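Q: Predict the bound structure with thiamine diphosphate.
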Amino acid sequence: MRKVFSRPVSLKDVPFHYCPGCNHGIAHRLIAEVIDELNIQDNTIGVAPVGCSVFTMDYFDIDMFQASHGRAPAVATGIKRVLPDRVVFTYQGDGDLAAIGTGEFVHAAARGENITLIFINNAVYGMTGGQMAPTTLIGQKTKTSPQGRKHEVNGYPIKVCEMLPPLEGTAYVARVAVHKPKSIIQAKKAIKKAFEVQIKGLGFSLVEVLSACPTNWGLSPIEAVTWLEENMIPYYPLGEFKTPTAGVI
Amino acid sequence: MALITFREERCKGCRLCTTVCPKNLVVMSGQINDMGYHPASVLEMEKCTGCALCAMICPDLVIEVQREVKAV
Ligand SMILES: Cc1ncc(C[n+]2csc(CCOP(=O)(O)OP(=O)(O)O)c2C)c(N)n1
Ligand code: SF4
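A: Predicted complex:
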């Protein structure tokens, strides 16, 4: 018999601190599998955010840097410009990327920095206890929107993937989900494509990963993945929003 | 023929794996692990095809899958 599924080499053999059913672990594994498949473990530098995934440097068996809140794209820019032969990616939540770090990701994209952003959208601030995020859905109840988000008061949720394509520096923009096996397979393909776009030097790439946070959604892990499917995907449709010119990849 | 192994001490009992098995083979054990969770397990291993869907959805890399792979 042959092993058909086992822990990727680029993921250290330590337990994750994430809550039961948290989708961060699935996203970590997919990135590590892609690093293994592209054979870039010794050549990849990751930048961790502030948020539940602040400890990712304890998990990926690659060089990692931990940035201040929201600043990962700026740090990644510096690393990539000094070490252009490395594959440089950030791993950021929606509080980190789409709230305090909005200026960072937009300008990194506009500059066409040749880096990859993995953007984990769980529609809430996880680490700090479930406050409303810019990505929180209309009507979604959080600690700071106990009656549900209202657009009159809180504005509308930010659609990051829809925002980026007009910026000429962006080469690859995709939204995926990791709540069921079929989506997980698609998610891995998109992450791999984003890394390949960077390796080919084609410009900025971002993969938004819709991800369940059962704890702060107040749902069981099984209810949470169903909630994601029924509520997040209709507002945040999956797919590729920008790809490099046909035939390049 | 397939063999799947669970690192029960790493399982947080989230049950996502029980929802994706096409043959409904994954069940939660009556035992409690050191973290205090009921870990996932497969009782009727002979029925497992090794499709690895349970391993794919597991957020904690608890599951390893081996399968008879036909020589090409
Ligand atoms: C400068 C600064 N402001 C605010 C915080 C508090 N804080 C920590 S994590 C976080 C948001 C985390 O949410 P997200 O990025 O969505 O990641 P998740 O925890 O959901 O994975 C905030 C506001 C901080 N650490 N530093
Ligand atoms: S709070 Fe949410 S995002 Fe953070 S570890 Fe728990 S389930 Fe995951």
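A: The interface with chain A takes residues 1-3, 10, 12-16, 19-20, 37, 50, 52-53, 55-61, 63-69 of chain B (CB under 8 Å).
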